[in-house]
Prior knowledge:
The chain is α/β, with parallel strands linked by helices and 144 residues long. 24% of the residues lie in helices and 24% in strands. The chain has two domains: 8-73, Signal recognition particle alu RNA binding heterodimer, srp9/1 (2-Layer Sandwich), CATH 3.30.720; 86-143, no CATH class.
Amino acid sequence: MSSIKQVQITFDCAEPARVARFWSEVLGYVAPLPEGFATWDDFDRAVPAERQGPAWASCADPLGAGPRLFFQRVPEGKVAKNRVHLDVRVGTGLVGEERLAALEAECARLVALGAVRGQLLLADGVNESCQLMQDVEGNEFCLD
């Protein structure tokens, strides 16, 4: 029996390159272009007009430690809450006001990239504080 060596997280989206650029900035990942192309525009010009606008994009941890993120274009829009979401770990080991300050600083950075701020969930004695967010296409994630 073989064991799983790698995991890729796949997002359905309308604009794969845009969402890949957003998550690259959030996580410090790199978003490689399709092999043989210098830009997404060059890639677009190489495909038939009815298929223009990249059908997929990806980004990956430059150190190879984190999972690859893959973004695929789908025709339908997002209609319900995600069943799986990413936790962006910016407050690990921090508590109280120090944690809230770290969450707020990262939230402000991500809002400037196009994210939407959601509810701030304050520490409740069991869980530490976290900030709910949405990416550029409305996919939920948490600053944790």
